[in-house]
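Cast an eye over this sequence plus tokens and walk me through the fold:

***
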Amino acid sequence: MGKEEHEVAVLGAPYNAAPMTSTVINIRSETSVPDHVVWSLFNTLFMNWCCLGFVAFAYSVKSRDRKMVGDVTGAQGYASTAKCLNICALVFGLLLTIGLIILFATGTVMSLQAMSQMLKRDGAVLTRIQGKNLLGHHSFLVAQREQPGHLDGPEANGVQVTSAP
């Protein structure tokens, strides 16, 4: 014990009279960089328009790999790119999905209108054909009056049809 006390006595007090300062460095054992893998996987499976979800998934995996190695800066860079790609994939996917729904809805309405017009036209022709078998020319004139401006049959060729007494 005497030797240790002697060394302390030899060193003595510090020669600099300035106050001592200390620096504290916090080292986190676990880095908290979000890698957005789940979001990227969702976009890959459900909103993969133009493969943006797949590219975001690739960047997310790269971010996770960088985080495992301990490269926090690289992990943050890849995570930021994955986040931007996920946002673009989500917005683009939603807009295209809504646009396709609107397109199919209007196409369905237009198709129904076209079928309705075809049924009206074909229904008048069908009435004209069935009426001719039963009642003669009278039903033909009635069918022509049901659709004004619709010329089909003898009137289309300039022949005037008159009913027989």
Remarks:
- Residues 72-135 form the longest helix (64 residues).
